[in-house]
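User: Some background: our group keeps a shared notebook of sequences we're curious about, and every so often someone picks one and asks for a predicted structure to add to the entry. Today it's my turn. The entry only has the sequence so far, pasted here. Could you supply the structure so I can complete it?
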Amino acid sequence: MEKKTEATVKRKKGHYDMFDSSTVPDDLCPIATDIIVMRTGEWRAERPVVMRSKCVKCATCWAFCPVQCIEEKPLWFEADLSRCKGCGICATECPHHAIIMVEEKE
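Assistant: Of course. Here's the predicted structure to add to the notebook entry:
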């Protein structure tokens, strides 16, 4: 097998941006070499709604969220719906019952 040298290693435009191009062989599978932003909120069936009058900013929802989509606002916490997958863990764990899950409508 021919050893890849700096002269033989070629980089396609847009690929391997995270790596030094001299160390990446040209026959490397491109999986995990490009950063892909996953928007899990595109496929959820339910979304969390925060009842702001009940939220005391205890951050329990933030601590239990598996995708860390809960964001802090001045007086409450709220889910970033572009990343929220609608699992309902925040609503289940909220000790003040300040979060309800509502059906997502198209």
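Suggested note for the entry: The chain has a mean pLDDT of 78. Helices lie at 60-64, 89-93.
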